Amino acid sequence: MDSPDVGELTPPNRTLMGPGPSDVHPRVLRAMTTPLVGHLDPSFLDIMDEVQELLRYTFRTDNTWTIPVSGTGSASMEAAYGNLVEPGDTVLVPTNGYFGGRKAEMAERAGGDVVTVDAPWGEPLRPEDVAAAFDEHQPDVFGFVHAETSTGALQPDVPELTAIAHEHDAYVIADVVTSLGGVELRVDEWDIDVAYSAAQKCLSAPPGASPLTLNDRAMNKILDRDQSPRSWYLDLSLLEGYWGDDRSYHHTAPITSVYALREALRLVAEEGIENRWERHRETAGAIKAGVEGMGLELNPEDDYWLPSLNAVRVPAGVTDGEVIDYLLSEYDIEIAGGLGDLSGDIFRIGCMGHSCRPDNVAFLMTAFADALETLGADVDADAGIAAMRDVL
């Protein structure tokens, strides 16, 4: 067999304004070029401590059990469900977005019995419906999505939801993949037992090391399991030995990804987490004003608007695919279409982390207006651009 003739790596230079990944800060890219050391090197053990402390700051928690899971956000999600859910546990999951279905599958694979609490796609869970589901099913574990990437809806009333669960002695798992570092999140104050996220959204690091935090109550349930979790790689009772005080070998950590996450979290701390939340609200507000000025609608109501992921209804006269392709081919801008029940109905426009900058928003909205006009949508492009500029 001849050796393959493969040229140099030359991917296009995109502006990433979709549901993730987001643009990576130059400092994070530079951090990935620093010298590689071993995963048990004393210098790397110090870096691990720093990453954990920075994650606690970003999650707004004092949880000891706060680590980056080796893998993408789905790995931290599976670590949460695969460890906390034991065979025979009843697990309550939502049906109001694509990722509720993924939670259900992971819970089932962990041996859980899945029941659901319903809400339309694009709407949050209502506390009264969650309370009714608890009264009916008495679940052991309750999972919800704080920022639903598939619908652009933010879940309000989180403390009320966690209170309902804890009144029934259940554990709460929060999906904060599209909110950590970009939308207000207070793990301790809101009494969340487990929260998991990803690096490539509002933190603006490459995927590969995904944040996870658990309080003592949740970790004690895991350590007291009768059966080991089905995944050895994601077994938190074993990972505790590596990320805890012992620093004993479990697997080779993705060292370069940890470097990147550390630098991304340093940027969060330097900006200040509350300032960062405000920047996302203000900058994404220009996208919201711009699309509404054009005559378009966002999928969720204003009360549930998610600044980090703007779900915009596709107007008559165009399809989502042709607009997405136009932006990619003519402007090197990435946005995405809908998933599941909203496939073909919405554009998903991210405004996360390093992508959440006024110059990016101005570039995106100008290109978006051009794409819609060129392809025949009935929009008022000038009004949209003016509204966007007024906010910026």
From TrEMBL:
Domain Aminotransferase class V residue range list: 38-338
CDD domains listed in its UniProt record: AGAT_like
GO biological-process terms attached to the record: glycine biosynthetic process, by transamination of glyoxylate
Cofactor (UniProt): pyridoxal 5'-phosphate
UniProt KW keywords: Aminotransferase, Pyridoxal phosphate, Transferase
Domain of life: Archaea
This enzyme's EC code(s): 2.6.1.44, 2.6.1.51
The protein's name: Alanine--glyoxylate aminotransferase
Pfam entry (one): Aminotran_5
Region (Disordered): 1-25
MF (Gene Ontology): alanine-glyoxylate transaminase activity; L-serine-pyruvate transaminase activity
Family recorded in the similarity comment: Belongs to the class-V pyridoxal-phosphate-dependent aminotransferase family.
Top-level taxonomy: Archaea, Methanobacteriati, Methanobacteriota, Stenosarchaea group, Halobacteria
